[in-house]
Amino acid sequence: MKKQVEGEFDWSPEIQGYILGSSFLGYVVTQMPGGMMAEKISAKITIIMGVFISSLCHLISPFASWSNTYFILAIQFMRGIGQGLIPAASCVLAANWFPIKERGFLNTAMMSGFCAGALLGGVATGALCSSTLFRGWPSVYYIFGSLGIIFSIFLQLFLFDSPKTHPRITQSELKYILLNQEFSFSGKRPPIPWRKLFTSVPFYALTVAMTGQFWASTHFVSVHPTFLGTILHYPIHERKKSNPSSRLHQGLCALPWIQSLRTFSVSMPKT
């Protein structure tokens, strides 16, 4: 079995940990502000800001890596800040759009997009790293960053905060959605029942489950590829595309996301 291919950056394991962890720190910081911005200002604006900031940081990342360690740390942190704005704002948007009868199915489908994106992105990343396009690994940041910028433009054109603000929605669609909502868009949202929330057993069960899920996801997108490369010595990219070790590495990285997709599909409520 081949040894791990040396990279172009002389980063110690400690520095690598800081670089990998800084984005997750930024992600945590903007979770609650993202939800508050979506509620008070606009879920659409919050999501577009998150996508644009994280995509722009993707484009800058190669230059930051070549420039300075502290620069890439800052860019990673900013990328996490952008990504942290998206989940809570997406939930607000879903509450505005999804009818009660279809909310379970649609929320599950929306959340499964994370696993599908990680799966497809992981496979594409391996192929791009082994290519000669833009010197290999930088192409991952250029391509995905550019796609994110384009996606933010599409969001600006086609995303709307609520059915009432959509200029092309039919009256029948609008009536169906509004009749299947818990509240009126013209009124204020009900106050958050904090006491009932923190004395609810299902709330704590969900908290534990979500903590485990995100802990595992964080491991698979950061520690897992590093473990396969440095401990098991599976090459992340290989010049020979037919190399079985490279395919095995990609397959091992994809397995958790395949299982997550299966779990989401099983948990989808039948409508």
UniProtKB/TrEMBL annotation:
Transmembrane segments: 15-33, 45-64, 70-98, 110-134, 140-160
Residues covered by the Major facilitator superfamily (MFS) profile domain: 1-271
Keyword Coiled coil: no
Alphabetical GO biological process terms: monoatomic anion transport
Membrane topology of the entry: Multi-pass membrane protein
Annotated source species: Larinioides sclopetarius
PANTHER family per the UniProt record, alphabetical: FI19708P1-RELATED, SOLUTE CARRIER FAMILY 17
UniProt keyword list: Membrane, Transmembrane, Transmembrane helix
Predominant location: membrane
GO cellular component, one term: membrane
GO molecular function: transmembrane transporter activity
InterPro entries (UniProt xref): MFS, MFS_dom, MFS_Na/Anion_cotransporter, MFS_trans_sf
Cellular compartments annotated: Membrane
The protein, known as: Major facilitator superfamily (MFS) profile domain-containing protein
